[in-house]
Batch of 4 targets.
Target 1
Amino acid sequence: MKLYTYDSAPNPARLKMFLDYKGIEIETQQIDMTKMEQHSEEFLAVCPNATVPTLVLDDGTRLTEVIAIVHFLESVYPEKPLLGVTPNERGMILNWNHRLFMSVAMATADAFRNAHPAFKDRALPGIHPVTQIPELAERGKTRLLQSFEEINAELGTRDFMGGANFSFADIDLLVLLNFAGWAAKTTPDASLDNIRRWKQQAEQALNS
Ligand SMILES: N[C@@H](CCC(=O)N[C@@H](CS)C(=O)NCC(=O)O)C(=O)O
């Protein structure tokens, strides 16, 4: 199996935290997005959609979505589970993985890619030209602030995003808060106490 990735980009960063936490080592090739290597002929032969990360399995199967890659790897390496053990945990972790992707990840990407000149005609990842829409950049920042309020309320009901235990949903949120901070210049208000408390606990759990 071989992993094609670019560790400093947000989706690859979610996967890297998962791999490091579980102590999984995989043959890896970095695809330098600052040099547009994701659009090189060599990488397009691996991933025609030009996105990282991509995991190529030993039989040639390609997984191009982080959530699919971590599910595959958790089945092969079940130690230190990050996707839940009970049916309830599994449901909640997937629920919040998807919700955070659709809210925080998409809103940040909208804010970043519809405003930055480097993404002219590349407002969405992939091989097709996509025009920037400046209004989406503004909407992205508003959606982020709304999402932070919702997440803060959720975290008032439990220790971690997926329940009582640290999970991949917490990795999602750690990476996405960082992404929103540098790419959309939007961070949770200091009054959102539950997010602040959760972040300390999640960072501790990640390094345990
Ligand atoms: N749905 C994919 C998203 C992958 C994705 O969008 N990756 C970004 C890096 S964070 C990318 O490859 N962008 C390529 C580009 O901007 O040209 C997943 O869950 O992994």
Target 2
Amino acid sequence: MFRIKADDTVEVRKGKDRGKRGKVRQVLVKEGRAVVAEINVMKKHVKPGQEARQAGIIDIEAPIQMANLALVCAKCGKPTKVGTRILEDGTKARFCKTCGELT
Ligand SMILES: [Zn+2]
């Protein structure tokens, strides 16, 4: 199970965007990838009538391997590993292995 989900802030650990942070727009579970805002931006040529009204070059955010992403803890602001903990009421919660706070 992947520990990253939509709306999480992540930091890129590998590749051309290494060190950048962005918000997860979408998680592609089957592919093990995620689309992250402003990260892994590629230029794409389009013809009118496909994805754009006018022909030209558009920027698209290509999915990036989740193995190359680290969750940024909302509490301590550091890229961290996440653990899963079962709460007293039986629900699963993620927690930050750096500061120990639930995230
Ligand atoms: Zn933390």
Target 3
Amino acid sequence: MESQVESLLKLAKNRGKKRSPNLISVVSGKGGVGKTAITTSLAYSLANHFNKKVLLLDCDVGLGNVHVVLGLSLGKNLKLVFKGLPIREVVQRVYNFDVVLGFSGIERLDELEEVNPSSFLIQLESITQEYDYILLDNSAGLNRYTLGFSKASSSTYVITTPEPTSLTDAYAFIKSLYKLYGYKDFKVIVNMASSKREGIEVFERLNYSVSRFLGFKLKLVGVLPYTKNLKESLAKKVPLPELYPFDPFSREIKKVAQLEVGEVYTGEEKRGSFIKSLIKLFFEGR
Ligand SMILES: Nc1ncnc2c1ncn2[C@@H]1O[C@H](COP(=O)(O)OP(=O)(O)O)[C@@H](O)[C@H]1O
Ligand SMILES: [Mg+2]
């Protein structure tokens, strides 16, 4: 009898517990800083190392290239979703995660004007329950897509390199999203760093400007090294963590995924585990 009550309670509890997926928008001020390399590797790691249900969306409107990195052909893509096709119908599966490809080129210049980021986000709502993480690989810079998608995200990963122009553009992006929407949920990845120290210094410069002029703090979630192996991974069309799991880039991506998973899923312990992971990230050897 008691067990019947217990199982009923359990059932009721589980009914109310809708999975809350994490919409992560990956952006940068400047192009070519590694958004696509990072987003595809992160999707791979969350799915394969942490067993998460992941959807990767190529939101680089008009210049999408996730298909190139993953070796897929561009048949079913986001343009069809923008035109009203249910998102479910264009989802493809690779390396244990789902992907919606973007598109390259637009036929008419005004075609982009017809696309409304919010109607797309409403469509996205319909499948969010099915995923633990939805990663959006955006175009570079400030436009209504990158701003719109980031505004709707639970966190925005800002990718920068140590290059000063990349850093100032990252600041401009953060400032705009904050000034427009009061948005502060930024996580920073410094890519192509020559050392962890350099990565941390770059982050500190950005964080200093943000705290001083905008009044809030950023989180550093990863410092990724330059690796020659990314070129080979592109040529072979296999994500780097699959091709070279022990490449320093792959290892660091796994730590980013670990932070993301730990931070989201450990409830009360989340601060502790987040700090522990940070200590691991920066003070334990690669
Ligand atoms: N850490 C890295 N080490 C070496 N090459 C990298 C690294 N990150 C990115 N790249 C390379 O730089 C180029 C641009 O990266 P990509 O991910 O396409 O940038 P974005 O999406 O920001 O435009 C690609 O050829 C990619 O393989
Ligand atoms: Mg890209």
Target 4
Amino acid sequence: MKDEKKKIVIIGAGIAGLSAGIYGLLAGYEVSIYEKNQVAGGECMGWNRRGYHIDNCIHWLTGTKKGTELRKVWETVGALSPDQEFAGTEVFYTSCVGNQRATLWNDLERTEKELLELSPEDEAEIRKFITHVRYAQSCEVPSSKPMDMMGIRDYIEMGRSMADMPKVMKEYGKIDLEDLAEKFKHPVLKKLVSGYMPKEYTAYSFIVSYATMASGNGEIPAGGSLAMVNRMVKRFRELGGTLFCGTSVNRILIQGKKTYGIALENGEQITADYVICAADARVLFTQLIGEKYMNKRWREVYSDTRRYPLFSGFQIAYSISKERYHENGNVLFDCEPFMIGGRSVENVCVKSFAYEKAFAPESKTVLQTNVLQYDEDYFFWESLDKEEYRRKKEELIGIITDRILTRFPELEGDIEFLDCWTPLTYHRYCNAYHGAYMSFVTKKDEKPFRVKGTVKGISNLYLASQWIMAPGGLPVAVVAGKFAVQRILKKEGRFQNGNSLPLS
Ligand SMILES: Cc1cc2nc3c(=O)[nH]c(=O)nc-3n(C[C@H](O)[C@H](O)[C@H](O)COP(=O)(O)OP(=O)(O)OC[C@H]3O[C@@H](n4cnc5c(N)ncnc54)[C@H](O)[C@@H]3O)c2cc1C
């Protein structure tokens, strides 16, 4: 590069924005990030309440296994160190129906043995399920470069390393979680495979998620979500990047077929050679550049919530005593039904954070609930005025606390409310479309959503976000940041296979 560095401005300091910023600096650009919130992290967040830390993201971080391409990316952006410590959880999750239960342990032999003991009549289906979870352990998020920039060798290598995945796709790629549940006879097994993730997901998504945990490629980094974000911010600043928090971006400035920068909420204009939008894609296509730049595929997915559903959560955090609660990881249990909006809820998921001592005073831990919420639930929350919203939250806190105490009577007199948040919170805090914290759910009959992250008609604008590839999540966000910078390098003729830049 010449003396004068070219300038990239990035909108949003979530995982994708920070990743783009770090890769941009490594590639020799001058980089500034503008984030509307007072702290970076976006949906990868954590906050403090009354002496407790509420961690609201990482249940599993795909790409923690050493030697994988994605682990290199996490290390490059400073999210993980080479000697990173992890929480060392043993469980993917547990499902309870009445007084019976089943657990998906990271130890697949143990899972298989326990499931067979619970339901010998499901033997064939259990063995098939476990075999395919083993196959799915080879699945990796493509993280070296965007698929459309791959050469024949890259495809051969990918095919070789994921050789068993076609078997998983063949068996579980065309059915959803409801269909998978139908294959089992035992009610606990039915709930085990269909209750944790939205049931509209294709069965292979669930199998790959479990396989990721079971192969040691989906750990929780010590310190949790916020600590990981803070390591990325430190890396970004140490490389010379500038992060402006509490600075909302109003518009992307366009002249002809190019952007020349951004306009902040306070009216200030910031010029740039490249703009990377790392905010929610809907913000890009409405407020920042307008709907006329939305291509056919984006319009298709946004216009049909039935084919392309989104989900979020109604969540509550409590403090409880460690000695009173002995569950490990996420536990989904059935309960007396209750209503949210027009929908009946029959299960509640709870998770203890006892694995992280720093999150609570000694002898205590944080217990969180998550009740899945869909597009319609978002509309319900949105329809309430301020007072109705407050009252509905309070009513649900009472109901859900009651359901938890029915399931875990040992917590009676020892459960203290800390905080509660809804899909609207994600919209308010992160501008998240419909409060969704993952991208579009891939249904069994639909093509998985994937776009390049470029905008037709604006040649130097890129989208780096979990929204570019279903199902979204942290791995997609981090590689989206890297991919946006690789596209800029390609545009400048600086991208080669086996790139000499430190863009691992
Ligand atoms: C409860 C929960 C559990 C989760 N569990 C997991 C998990 O276990 N594993 C996993 O992989 N993923 C998980 N996720 C998903 C993960 O958090 C997201 O996929 C990821 O953080 C999205 O990153 P992003 O950078 O694409 O977007 P975001 O985090 O949404 O970042 C966008 C940023 O842009 C900012 N912004 C928006 N508009 C503007 C504007 N106009 N001007 C300036 N800034 C703006 C926002 O404030 C935000 O900081 C979970 C999320 C939640 C909420």
